[in-house]
Design a protein that fits this description.
The protein is an alpha/beta fold. Among the domains are: 280 residues, TIM Barrel (Alpha-Beta Barrel), CATH 3.20.20.70; 74 residues, no CATH class. The chain contains 17 helices and 16 strands. The chain has an eight-stranded parallel β-barrel with strand order 1-2-3-4-5-6-7-8, surrounded by eight helices. Strands 11-12-13 form a three-stranded antiparallel β-sheet, covered by helices on one side. Helix 1 packs across helix 2 and helix 16 runs parallel beside helix 17. It starts with 31 loop residues before the first strand and ends with a helix.
Length: 561
């Protein structure tokens, strides 16, 4: 019998490998996405947002297509109070603003409970109430009887139900509570149903539940709630302490058919974080074929992820799936060659589907394909049969053997390629520099001065500048010398500076690599320097940074001409 012929699919035919929908998943299953970045996410260490930041993120989440945006706990702090006040005059096109709070205090009826009244004052169309599911928490945290907890769950929800459009109940510590006392954990859900909760969200608050445990527990919940005769939806709220929050959320949708998934952008949250919506959303849309509002705007996912990090003043996680800079980065020459012919060979989806881009990295594993790709990207006339290509490959491997790294310093590599191709201009000629660091008093910081001598257009320039440390002093001196000739350098600034010791064999004599990140009003770029002398390595990176800036100015002017 003849062997069947394989069918070849091109990158244009599909965004990724063919995936079958999960057994119960289909486009008829609409998934609600509930974002708690502004509340649960801000409980992460070193994660802080102003009211303006929270408003900006709310608008971005709304534009992305998130269904419910939990803004915080009204009355808990001045930021939350102001946020909810401002949200009352901030229109949203799709999302529903949501306030979060606890069941009433046992000693207070709902109409006299400050927490419950603050929820209503927030004026949100949706309210989420959390209550205790684990008997240990009822006794040891609330210090009330088990039956008292059932009472405050039911009457808190019953009071709120006619006063809000959407009412959710977060069953805190549900999975731990279920495993410890199944009957009581289920009885707390009964109370929530009687109180009028439209959706019951099962929370893995401690993050210790594993994926295989999720479906049978939810199946038992469905079986039990069926006896109430009430139509209630289920949701999942997973924490990441066992590194399974995303998996737990996806399996809850795929096998247990929950309707609502809660999480945070980039997985921020207390301890190890929450379920990461930037990983969950593409899986729901592209892998499981489910319907959700975000499907329409999922190409905004990358920019939304970066906006949250930027406003929280936290670095981007380059290795994050889907939205990280390295998610679609290719380094090995074989990989690059294959991706050029068909991206499906090393990419599970097309990067532009989530707003990301494909990146070809330059490294000592690079082949000719990497360099040719960069040449096309930068508009350089380099062809596969050009002898200069072999020169660039050889120089690259030799430099990286010395400790240079271009993955985070592509500006330096573009300059290297242009020099090899004879396409660079000498903007200035270096003569010498000196850096002096004087400590006059032990109770005062040292004084640092850099002196440089260079030639610009045949004119000798000799100048000095003070700075906060030797690198800053060098940077200031270079700018002082060159700005009169190249005024565009005034808008350029150094934004990041990293030093890495490459070998500890010689102690303080070890070779170091310096990575410098610079930016102007339009671009950000990285440059690199390597030496046994940290000042020399810094000088290399700074000079490359300035040369790159001036080169980009020339290219812009030539395009306009």
């Amino acid at each position: 019998m003849p062997r069947p012929q394989a069918t070849r699919r091109s990158a244009k035919d599909s965004a990724g490998p063919t995936t079958r929908p999960f057994p119960q998943a289909s486009m008829t299953h609409y998934v609600e996405l509930y974002d708690t970045t502004l509340r649960d996410g801000t409980q992460a260490e070193n994660f802080n947002l102003s009211v303006d930041d929270k408003i900006r993120i709310t608008r971005a989440l709304d534009e992305l297509g998130i269904d419910f945006i939990e803004g915080g706990w009204p009355g808990s702090n001045p930021v939350s109070v102001e946020y909810f006040q401002r949200m009352q005059t901030t229109p949203l096109s799709h999302a529903k603003s949501t306030a979060f709070g606890a069941t009433r205090h046992f000693k207070n009826p709902p109409e006299q409970d400050a927490n419950v009244q603050a929820l209503l004052k927030a004026g949100t169309p949706a309210v989420t109430i959390f209550g205790k599911s684990w008997d240990i928490h009822v006794v040891d945290a609330l210090h009330i009887r088990l039956e008292d907890n059932l009472e405050i769950i039911e009457d808190t929800l019953a009071y709120l139900r006619p006063r809000v459009d959407f009412l959710f109940y977060d069953a805190e510590h549900f999975f731990d509570g279920f495993k410890n006392n199944e009957a009581y954990a289920l009885s707390t859900l009964e109370s929530a149903v009687r109180g009028g909760a439209q959706t019951i969200v099962l929370c893995d608050t401690n993050g210790g539940t594993l994926p295989h445990e999720i479906p049978p527990i939810i199946a038992r919940v469905r079986e039990h709630l069926a006896g109430t005769g009430k139509n209630v939806e289920l949701g999942i709220h997973a924490h990441n302490d066992s590194e399974t929050a995303v998996a737990n959320s996806l399996i809850a949708v795929a096998e247990a058919r929950v309707r609502q998934v809660q999480g945070t952008i980039n997985g921020f949250g207390e301890r190890c974080g929450n379920a990461n919506l930037t990983s969950i959303i593409p899986a729901l849309v592209f892998k499981m074929g489910l319907e959700c509002e975000v499907r329409k705007n999922i190409d905004r996912l990358f920019t939304t992820s970066r906006l949250v990090n930027e406003l929280a003043n936290l670095p981007q996680n380059r290795y994050q799936p889907y939205v990280g800079e390295s998610a679609f980065a290719h380094k090995g020459g074989i990989h690059v060659s294959a991706v050029k012919h068909n991206p499906l060979t090393y990419e599970h989806i097309a990067p532009d589907k989530v707003g990301n881009i494909r990146r070809i990295l330059i490294s000592d594993q690079s082949g000719r394909a990497n360099i040719l790709h960069k040449a096309r990207q930068w508009g350089l006339p380099l062809t596969p049969d050009d002898p200069v290509l072999a020169t660039i490959v050889s120089e690259l491997k030799e430099l990286e053997n010395q400790g240079y790294q271009y993955e985070g310093a592509e500006a330096s590599f573009e300059l290297l390629m242009r020099r090899a191709m004879g396409m660079t201009r000498n903007y200035f000629k270096f003569a010498s520099f000196r850096v002096m660091n004087d400590k006059y008093r032990m109770d005062q910081p040292p004084l640092t001065e850099a002196t440089i001598r260079m030639f610009v257009g045949g004119r000798e320039v000799h100048t000095a500048a003070m700075g906060d440390g030797p690198v800053n002093a060098l940077d200031c001196a270079i700018r002082k010398a060159l700005t009169r000739f190249y005024p565009s350098l005034e808008e350029m600034e150094l934004t990041d500076y990293k030093v890495r010791v490459l070998s500890g064999e010689h102690g303080t004599e070890a070779r170091v690599r310096v990575l410098v990140e610079s930016r102007d009003s339009q671009n950000t770029w990285g440059t690199v320097g390597v030496s046994v002398n940290i000042i020399e390595a810094s000088w290399q990176a700074l000079v490359d940074s300035i040369n790159y800036k001036l080169m980009q100015e020339d290219l812009r002017r030539s395009k306009m001409a």
